Fold:
Amino acid sequence: MLDLRQSATVQQLISDVGEDAFLMLSEALIAEIQNAQQSLPRYLADKDWHMLEVDAHAMKSAARSFGAEALADACLDLEKYGQSSGTDGDAKAILNTFDTAAVETLNAIKKL
Structure:
């Protein structure tokens, strides 16, 4: 189970931006994850490799800023899949890993 409350990354982020801004960033990350849960599978289904790569990259960066490494790694796999035009890896497995990490991260953020 992911516990972001003890994450050094989260503690540094709070120190850098303050508690109020951190809460706003947390809400923005929740929205970004929820949007990605809708858009990334659609990009895969539509074989829109460019948008898959771009959105997965953005989600990866946002996840890393909160120390959500499993989600960031899953996004990296989706980004690479988009870069390869769908030839490098198993789309279903990659998407399942993303979904699992997204749900785990959402639950962890909501506990902050």
Q: What stands out?
A: The helical segments are 8-17, 19-46, 49-65, 69-83, 91-110. The chain has a mean pLDDT of 95.
